[in-house]
Amino acid sequence: TMTLPARLAFQFDAIVLFFYCERRAQGAGYRIHLRRLERRFTGVARTDATIINAELEALIRTCPHQYLWAYNRYKVPPGVEPPAAKGPA
User: I need a labelling partner for 89 at 20 to 30 A (CA). Which of 5, 9, 23, 58 fits?
Assistant: First the structure.
């Protein structure tokens, strides 16, 4: 979980908004949902990551059928040799 947004919000006492786009039926476009984060960040990375994860989980639960559950960007296709690991820089 990225903690930079939480660190910035804590440092500058910023309002945090979460948003997601809901795909409408039959190609009718998207509906954008905004939610203000009601909890305050603490400045403790683990606690703040837990807050972010809980909010993301709540957003996903609103439209779980539209969430991208698998992201295979780094997966090596069958039959393809994976690239050699890079040595120390």
Answer: 5
